[in-house]
Design goal:
The complex is a heterodimer of chains A (397) and B (58). Chain A is an alpha/beta fold and 397 residues long. Chain A has 3 domains: 179 residues, FAD/NAD(P)-binding domain, CATH 3.50.50; 118 residues, D-Amino Acid Oxidase, Chain A, domain 2, CATH 3.30.9; 55 residues, no CATH class. In chain A, 34% of the residues lie in helices and 29% in strands. Chain A is built from 12 helices and 18 strands. In chain A, strands 1, 2, 8, 9, 10, 11, 17 and 18 form an 8-stranded mixed sheet that branches. Chain A has a 7-stranded mixed sheet with strand order 6-5-13-14-15-12-16, with helices on both faces. In chain A, a hairpin with a 2-residue loop joins strand 17 and strand 18. Chain A is globular, with a radius of gyration of 21 Å. Chain B is α+β, with helices and mostly antiparallel strands. Chain B has one domain: 2-Layer Sandwich (Alpha-Beta Plaits). In chain B, 17% of the residues lie in helices and 24% in strands. In chain B, the strands form 2 sheets. Chain B has a two-stranded antiparallel ribbon. In chain B, strands 2-3 form a two-stranded antiparallel ribbon. In chain B, a hairpin with a 2-residue loop joins strand 2 and strand 3. Chain B is globular and about 25 Å long. Classes of the chains: A alpha/beta (397), B alpha+beta (58). At the A-B interface, helix 5, strand 12 and strand 16 of A face helix 1, strand 2 and helix 2 of B. Bound molecules: flavin-adenine dinucleotide and iron/sulfur cluster (2 copies). The site of one iron/sulfur cluster (SF4) has 13 residues of chain B, from helix 1. The site of one iron/sulfur cluster has 14 residues of chain B, from helix 2.
Chain lengths: 397, 58
């Protein structure tokens, strides 16, 4: 690597890739380091993304899309299924990606824009000067090197160690981590244009089971549960094995995917002197759905725009880069994170009987548009007795 | 003392994100304890596979 860049990006996921591409397009010298030997591998994701959201960044390409989705099915704890049909699925329709290819495509776009990419290269410590982040100590294949940068983008995902080394507490509370296992299964009977969500305290305490199609007879079948519900004998792997045994006994597992998704509120401050924190590292994945691909891309791009401005003005202090923090918080994304955290806190405490009632009620609604917000508004209109139940979240709407 | 069952670990990093001490570090496919571990056991709870265990110091 060169000894110095304008921008050094730690992590080659969607957040880091968008930051690197955006900065390189603006003419900055950019280095991106990824500690794994391959971008996007192993996968730590169910790979679902909204169509509108994705298309904010790029045109869909069959090269990295596994399946197109036009409806969602919600399964209540009692087994009752309700479909959210295409006519009302609105912006929730989308794609199941092939993230091995998708992540690599994003990094190749960054490279094409002029960013230098180094894989199997790990940031092991920040370079700190008078309390300002001034680069990173990098380890590549046994060699240590100091790489200086005007701004460092911490895009190191759920682990979020880089910002922590710089003094930002990024630890996720145990109750706010969704601990997950997913099987890529083949030979199973599925609706290959629908994502399916199973709810219930027996099935997935404080979480859900998902079935995301990956092609004919093939799907990501996974589960996330709250860390506080996980213990020996009742870990995600145990719940998933039970689910698969009863729902897809004929299926064959061709890949194991595990990981953690933070469902906590975002970091209190996502900028520091000389550093911007993006994506999962900033804890901006959606607390209700666990989705974080778009969130990482959005914050990654924004971070590079703000950092480029700051560098041009010769002031990379936290204050100068604060517009990053305030802009994403005020955005649609930022507002939905805040709201969805509170909705999640409400839903995870519902016993199965109430969850059943909710799903049955939703199925009787005449929805023209499907979104969490619309569903809750309609529920209250439809079933006033639910108002009491939903009082906790009504104020958020 | 924290025991890492490498035959079980899927190097996903979930445990890294919850450790209050920042004591865990994932080096590609290799999880290691690199800082001061207080044996609190939080990481062991968060592991989706059950690869971590706080063993008695005895
Ligand atoms: C089981 C599961 C299912 C999910 N399902 C969905 C879904 O369906 N839809 C959705 O939108 N989101 C989903 N998510 C969340 C989504 O995967 C993340 O939000 C997204 O990948 C975040 O992107 P990122 O760029 O912030 O981080 P990541 O994609 O995690 O990338 C961070 C990168 O940084 C690297 N890195 C870490 N430390 C260092 C270091 N010190 N030096 C160099 N490199 C380093 C890592 O190796 C990694 O490649 C899911 C997550 C999990 C675990
Ligand atoms: S959470 Fe478990 S599987 Fe994942 S890295 Fe930690 S010990 Fe390994
Ligand atoms: S036992 Fe506690 S301090 Fe030790 S590694 Fe696990 S979470 Fe960190």
């Amino acid at each position: 690597m060169k000894p110095e860049y304008d921008l050094l990006v730690i992590g080659g996921g969607p957040g880091g890739a968008l930051a690197a591409r955006t900065a390189a397009e603006k003419g900055l010298s950019v280095g991106l380091v990824e500690k794994r030997p391959a971008i996007g591998v192993p996968v730590r994701c169910a790979e679902g993304v909204g169509r509108d959201l994705l298309e904010e960044f790029m045109d869909p390409d069959p090269a990295w899309i596994s399946a197109e989705i036009d409806r969602a099915v919600l399964v209540a704890p009692d087994g009752f299924r309700m479909a959210l049909e295409p006519s009302m699925a609105g912006s929730e329709v989308g794609y199941v990606l092939d993230r091995k290819r998708f992540d690599r495509e994003l990094v190749m776009q960054a490279a094409a824009a002029g960013a230098e990419i180094q894989v199997k290269t790990r940031a092991v410590a920040p370079i700190m000067e008078n309390g300002t982040v001034a680069g990173a100590r990098i380890e590549q294949n046994g060699q240590i090197q100091d790489v200086r940068a005007k701004v460092v983008i911490a895009a190191d995902g759920v682990e979020s160690k880089f910002a922590r080394w710089c003094g930002v507490d990024t630890a996720v509370p145990l109750g706010d981590i969704e601990t997950c296992v997913q099987y890529l299964m083949t030979g199973i009977e599925i609706d290959d244009a629908a994502t399916v969500f199973h709810l219930g305290n027996e099935i997935a305490p404080e979480g859900y089971v998902w079935i995301f199609p990956k092609g004919p007879k093939t799907a990501n079948v996974g589960i996330g549960i709250s860390g506080r519900k996980s213990r020996d004998g009742s870990r995600p792997i145990d719940y998933l094995n039970r689910f698969v045994k009863s729902h897809f006994p004929e299926g064959r597992v061709v890949e194991w995917i595990m990981g953690g998704v933070s469902v906590c509120p975002p970091l209190e401050k996502t900028v520091a002197d000389g550093m911007v924190i993006v994506g999962d590292a900033a804890r901006v994945s959606d607390p209700l759905t666990g989705g974080g691909i778009y969130n990482a891309m959005y914050t990654g791009r924004l971070a590079a725009q703000v950092a480029a401005d700051a560098i041009a003005k010769g002031d990379v202090s936290a204050n100068a880069m604060m517009p990053y923090d305030t802009t994403w918080r005020a955005s649609k994304l930022g507002k939905s994170l805040d709201r969805n955290y509170r909705i999640k806190e409400y839903f995870i405490h519902l016993p199965d009987a109430k969850l059943n009632r909710l799903v049955h009620s939703i199925s009787r609604l005449d929805l023209t548009k499907f979104s969490t917000l619309e569903i809750i508004k309609e529920l209250i209109r439809h079933d006033p007795t639910l108002l009491l139940e939903l009082r906790a979240i009504r104020d958020l709407l | 003392m924290l025991v890492i069952r490498r035959d079980i670990c899927g190097y996903c990093g979930c445990c890294v994100s919850v450790c209050p001490q920042g004591a865990l570090e994932l080096i590609d496919a290799y999880l290691s304890v690199e800082g001061e571990c207080s044996s609190c056991g939080i990481c062991a709870r968060a592991c989706p596979l059950g690869a971590l265990e706080v063993a008695d110091e005895a």
